Structures are given as C-alpha cells and as structure tokens.
Amino acid sequence: MLATTVDILHQLDGENGEAILISPSDEKVVTKNKLLQLFQDVRKMPVAIYSIVGAYRKGKSFIMNLFLKYLEGVAKGKTNNDWKETNNTNLGGFSWRGGMEPNTKGVLIYSKHFVIKNATGQKVAVFLMDTQGLFDSETSVTECSCIFALSTLISSVQIYNLSQQIQEDNLQYLQLFTDYGQALQKRGTKHKNRYSFQNLLFLIRDWPHKTTSYGWEGGERMLNKVLEVGPHTDGGLKSIRKYIKASFENVSCFLMPHPGKKIAQREDGNHMYVDEDMKPEFKLYLNALAEDLFSPQKLSWKKIGEKPANGQNMIDFISATLPLFDPTTVPTIGTLLESAADLTAKKVLADCDELCKQEWQKLSNSTNFFGEEEIQTKSMEIENKLLEHFNSHMLLGDQALKAENEQTMLEKHRMRTSVFKQGNTEKISKHKEQYKRDVEAAVKWYRDELEQQMNRKTDVDRFDGKILEKLGDAIELKILKQFDHTHHDSMKIKYQNRLKEKVGHCFRDLSSRIDLEKKNAKDSMKKLTHECFRVFKDFVQQTEAEKAKKDKLTEIYNQAKQNAFKKFDEESKQYSSAFTETYHKKLEQQISELQNTEQALWNAQKEKARIRFFQNINDAQLAYKKKKDKEEMRSKNGYLNPKELDQLHKKCQAEAEKCLQEKFPEWKEEKDFSSSLDEFYETQYEMLKHNNEAIKNKIILAFKASAVTCVKEYNYQMAQKILAQINESEHTKKHQAALDQALDKFEKSHNGRNLESEKKKHRKELCETIEKEHQRNVETLAKQKETSMEIVADLRGNCLQTYMQHMTARLANPVNDERFIQVHDYSSEQALLQYDKATYIKDEKMKNEMRSKLIELIEEHQSKMLESNKNKQITEQCVDDELLDERIQKKKKKALAGFNASINEIAQSLVEPFQSQLERDLQKFAMQIKIDNRKKQKQMQMFADNCVLEIYQDMQKKCSEVGIAC
Ligand SMILES: Nc1nc2c(ncn2[C@@H]2O[C@H](COP(=O)(O)OP(=O)(O)OP(=O)(O)O)[C@@H](O)[C@H]2O)c(=O)[nH]1
Ligand SMILES: [Mg+2]
What we know:
Helices cover 69% and strands 6% of the residues. With 966 residues, it is mainly α. Helix 4 links the parallel strand 6 (157-163) and strand 7. It binds guanosine-5'-triphosphate and magnesium ion. Guanosine-5'-triphosphate binds at residues 56-62, 96-98, 102-104, 133, 205-206, 258-259, 263-264, 266.
C-alpha cells in the first residue's frame, strides 16, 4: 500500500527542498497542508509535473535526482554538463540507494519547484515526482495500479521507466494500470480531457542494442516497432496498442545507455554520487534527455479539462483525486493470474463486444430498417457468434469467472441489441425526420423556386394561370426526380407521395395567392381608373367657369386629361404597361366619351349663345348708331377733334354694350362675340373718322371760299374807290375799312370750332391776299394819279392849244391890242371852257391847280402872242398862217394814226392775259362758291373795265413816252 506519512526522505545538501509524500490515507487537512506547501507560491502559475514510474530497483529515484540536479544547475545558470558538479558526492532530493531491497515508498513530489519559461515566454513551475517501485513481492497489483494511476493522473509527463526493452507484459501492465486509472478517474472527476492522460515517455534504461542509436531517434524507432499493428499482430495486442495510443495524448521513447558498472552495481544502501562513475555516454544522453525534457519547447504543463492547471488548480485537483485511491474503498485487483484471467476475460469480453458491435454496426450501416422480429433473429445470430468466440477464447479462469463473464458478455450483447433497437428506432425516426426535412426542403425549394420564377415574370405572365401551371409542373418534376435519386428505401414512395401532396398544396396556395393578387391588381386598377376619371371630371368641373368664359375647353380638357393620366401612370408604376394597357384604354375611352358629350353640350350652348348674340348685336349696333346720330346732331355736324371723336365713339360703344348687356348679359364671356362687336366698332370708328375728316375738308373749303368772297368784296369796294380816284390817305382809310369788313365777314362766316388753326391759317392768307390787293391798288392809285396828271397836262395842253388856235386863227394877221385882248379873252374863255367841260378828271384839287397853271400858261402865251402880234405887225409878210395850219393838221393826223395803231397793238397784248385770268377766276368762283353767276360776271365786268381803264392809262403813259399825243 502507499505510504501514509509525510517522509522527508532526503534532505539535499544545503538545498531547501524536500520530497513530500502524497497519500490518500492522509487526513484532508494534512493533505491540504502538504499541497499548500507544494503549490502555495505558484497558485496562479501553470504547473508541470514530471513523474517516473516503473519496476522497483531500476534507478528511477537516481535519475529523478539527476534531473533535480540538472534543474538546480540550470537555476544557478549552469549549462551543458556543468550542472554535474564532479566534486559533489551528494545526489539527493528523492531517496535512492543500491541493493535489492525496494526503496521508495508511495508517491512523492519534491517541494521545490523550478520556474522555466515555455516557448511562448510564459512561466511554468516544474515539479518532479518519484514513485514507489512496482512489482516487488510486497506490492499487490492493486497497489501497483494505484501508484501508476495516481502518478499518471497527477503528472503532466509520466516516465515509464523500463529496463533494456519494452516487453509485451510492460504494455499489458501499462494497459491494466491506465485502465484502472481511467476507471477511477471516471468515478471522481468532472473534468473531461480528450485524452485520459497527457505524456507518456518510455525511458528504456541500459539499452543493450548497439545497432539502434540511443536517445530520441532510437527511442522513436523502438516505439514504432513496439506499437506497430501489423496484419499478424494478435487481436489482444492490437487492442493494447490502440488503447495506449488512445489513452495518452503523446507517447514517446528515449533509449538510455548503461550508466556503468559503478552505478549499476553499487552496494546496498550506497547513495554516494561520483560523477566519474557514470559512463560518458550515459552522461551525454542524460544531459540530452534533461535538456529536451525541460526545454521551453518540450515543457509540458498539466492540463485539467483541457486548460492549463495552475498551483491552485493542482491543490484542488489532487485534493479531489486522492480520495479515489482511499485504500478502504479503492477497487482491488487480484493476483497476476487473477489479473491475467481477468485480463483475458476482459479481453475476450472486449473482443466479443467488439464483434457484437461490428455485427450490429453492419446492420446499423445498412440503409434498411428492421422490424422487431427481424432484430430478434439477428440478435440470436449474433449471440451464437459471440458464444462461440467466448468459449473458444475464454481459456483462463474458473467456471464461475467464465459464467460471470459470459453473463456480462450476453448482458452487453443484450445491451447492444437494445442499443441497436433504439438506434434502429432512432434511425427510423431520424430517417423519417430526414424525409420530413427533405420533403420540407423540397417543398420549400419548390415554393421558393416557383415564387422566384413567378416573381421574375411580368404581371401579365404572372396572372396567366397556364404559365404558373407549366412552371409548377416543371419544378415538381425536377424535385421528384431529385427526391427519387436521393432516397432508396421503402419509405420513399410514401414521402414522395407526401411531397407531391405538399407540392400540390403549395401550388394551389401560390395559385390562389396569385389569383388574389390578380384580383387585387384588377380591383386596384379599376379603382385607380375610376379615381383618375374622377380627377379628370373634378378638374373639368372646377374650371367650369373658366371654360365658359375663355373658351378654353380644349386646353382644360387637355390639362384634365394630363392630370388624370399623370396620376394613372404614377400609381400604376408597379404594374407593367401590358397589364395597365386595358385600364389605360378604358380611362381614355371614359374621358373621350365625357369630353365628346361635354364638347357637344358646350358646342350647343355656344351655338345657342351665338344665335342670341347675333339676335341682339343688331340692336346693339342700332343703339350705337342712334347714339352717334344724336351726338352728331348735338355737335351740329361740326368737326370733332380726335379726343372728342374718341369720346363720341366710346359713348356710342357704351350705349351699344349697355343695350347688349341688358338683352344678353353673357356676351362678354365669348371671345367670338366680343371680337365681332369689335369689328363693328372698328368700322364705325373708321366711318366716324372719315365723316369727321369730310366735315373738316368742307369747313376748310368754306374757309377758302369765304376768304375768296371777302377778297372779291374788298376788291369790289376798293375798285369803286379807285375809280373815284380817291387820294392816298382816303384810300388807306377805305382799305382799312374794307379790310375790317372783309375780316369781319370772314370771322362771322364760320365759328371755326376745333379748327381754329385752320381758320387762323385761312384768315392769315386772307390778310395776305388783301394786303397784296391793297398794294396793287396803291400802285394802281399811284398810276391813276400819274395818269390823271398827264391827262390834266394834256387837257391843259389842249386847252392851251385851243387858246393858241383861237389866238392864231384870229391873229393870223397882226391886230391891234384891243382886238388882241378881245381875241385873247375869247380864246382864253374857249380854252377854260374846254378845260372846265372835261368831267373825267375827278381830282378837283388837281384840276383847280392845273386850271391856275393853264391860266398862267395862257397869260405866258398871251404875252408871247402879244409880242408875236407885234412882231407880225412888223413882219406881216413873213409866215402864211394857212400853210402853217396845214402842216399842223398833217402832223396831227399822222400822230393820231400812229397813236391808234399803237393803242390797238398795246391793248391787244395787255388785255388778253387779264381776260384769261378773269375767265379762270370766274370759273373758280362759279365752281367753288356757287354764287350768282350773273352778279359775278357783272363784278368781273367792272373789274375788267377797271382793268381796261388801267390799261388805257398805262397806254396813255406809254404813248406820251413815245411822244404820241392822245
Ligand atoms: N543497471 C543500472 N543501474 C542503475 C541505473 N541507475 C541507477 N542504478 C542503480 O540502481 C540502484 C537502485 O537505484 P534506485 O534509484 O534506488 O532505484 P529505484 O528504482 O528507485 O528503486 P526503488 O525505489 O526500490 O524502486 C542503485 O544502485 C543505482 O546506482 C542504471 O541506469 N542502470
Ligand atoms: Mg526509488
């Protein structure tokens, strides 16, 4: 049994560690204290525990002490072989010694840990564990199993210390111990590692075969060979190997050379350590092994539940594990024979179970399902096979053991049978579930696929039932084919039918959904069409007044239509144009029908209104004309300035519109009506303007005619005055009076309203004309005066000539003075009488002046004649009076003839232009003023006479210039 006390087996030389016994027999407190002592300092640090186990007296404690030495050396900074201090003969930590007697007792952990960083730099507390040697005569298989199992459970690395080779029994024991450990582990721990144990190192001591190199390399070769499962490997061995591989996370092997005789053959109790005693080869591989085992790369920490265990975890874990190995309750294992029998039984049972498992597995692997009877038959068959195998292999052990194991085997078989049954049932239900899932998946796929494909269709195709049917059939065919291909058992038909049924449901569901969708779509389109039509109607109604007023019917309809279709397009976006086309057309038709009806109605109304308008427009026009006539009457057909004319037109227009408004108030709302009235207004206004213009022309003509009349009258008056041979101042007075009279008459002839400028213009022209006439008259008067003086001079000359003739005639012969005075008086009287008789000289003043002058001349001639008479008296014989008379008469005749010829010639040339001028004027007067022709002619005659007089006077003057006496 394991040691029950804490033994400080060996105190290292001066070192501060101790080997602490871990025993299940300890009180909990003791164990706790020991564990605290061990792991107190590394409660939070991952822990690695290196354990060694194996047959007694094989150098386990020795090599663990060397590892301890190595670790301490490393801790002190020593490397390679330096750690083996040659002068130090102490090798301690764990108790070791030479001799045959077993030494180490129980499971011991060295209290001092060594902190080593692993490959990731994490600190790991390394502990070393030594165990009691196995297989000595005092240690039972149970104890061996406990030692092995406990140390393997606690450690992270288990070194299976073997001598010279790995024997089959080593493996069998290994299986036994690990099996035992696993069984206890299962009992006690809740932690589940993938592997039961972590690292197993086969450390082969004293490796004798030189052909295989020491160390890891040889160890690996050795291990492969041992653990290899060949075709000829015994079934039991195979299972051991598999078992080992399956139980340990990592299995490795290291071949150690022999340490040398001095080490191997030391005396009993000798634990003196001399480095030189070890063969260099041994030292070399020892060093290599220590370096590798504790290298950061190979450092292996303890795992609990797959997690790194720290000191605290180890306290808990070991505390929980130790009670499993309580000697009073721990399961016992018999002797080796018993164990062998047990092992055999165990193996046979395991083989039978494996066989059983395989048999049932074959059936399980089959896709078929089995009924109750079928399973019973199969079970019997397998049982027979198992019994056969059991009887042929269960060679060790007594009958009781055999019977017991046979029962166990059969029990296990029954258990497996029921497991199979359960599995079969589960398989059936799983299969059913799978079928159900497959059916569901297929149905889902069918539904999704059908829906997706249908969703990709346009709404028209989507609503076409035939397309859905065709698609549904195609997809159904596809999934049934797939289903048929996937399943190959008796259930298939049933679930295929179920699939068909569900697919049918699915199809009907989608079909009815699409039908509903179609119905909804149609309904919503109908509703939309209706709403859009309402939009159209509302817009038309809202603009009713506008429509009537402005004749915007088409524009309004277009706008309303645009609004309606805009709404239609926006709200039917979700549908294709192919689907909405029908409704679009329907809306169009509705709108068109309404539009036509409205248009017809509107046309009728319009026509009615037109008829009414034209019935009333005549009255309006009449009202206009009446007003116009009235206004014209009021203005006495006088000329109107543009403003007045416009006002008149507007008044008339207002009258017309008033009339229209009374009879047909809606007339303004119709553009045609107002425009036709506008045309009338325009014509009327043009006529107004034309008439006004004619009035203006008439007035202007009247102005002109009046001016001409005034000029004529002026001329007439002035001609009278001129003929009367008035003097200049009188003439000026008369001119002013005649001018005033003419202007007064002109002024009175027309009031000149609205044509003041024209009147002024014509008045000015009149003044200018009269002024010209006046100037001419002044000239005429001046000429007349001149002519009168000439005439008077001529008269005076004639009278003087008469005097002279009388004198000459009576004084042909010289007379006495008396006679002379008589003759003179008589001649003078005759001359003056002649002078006074001349009535054509109107200028009395001038006539008197000339008379006095005549008298003066007569007196001059009297004195001359007196003198001549006297002279005659003296020269009586000098001149014949008759001859003189004759000569004078001849000259007179010649001059008169010349005068007459000259008169004729001059008169002809001067009168003609005046005559034509007169004719033109008369014609003009006759045409323009339509006055009494006869009166005009008379006036013209007077004028012509006057002109003839002027011509005569002018001619007289010319005659005098050329020396012709008139
Ligand atoms: N042949 C041989 N002997 C060794 C070796 N290592 C140590 N020894 C010797 O074996 C003897 C037993 O050493 P221990 O270390 O006490 O052996 P143990 O396996 O711990 O023995 P128990 O504690 O009784 O199980 C000592 O005399 C050692 O010198 C080795 O590798 N080969
Ligand atoms: Mg020992």
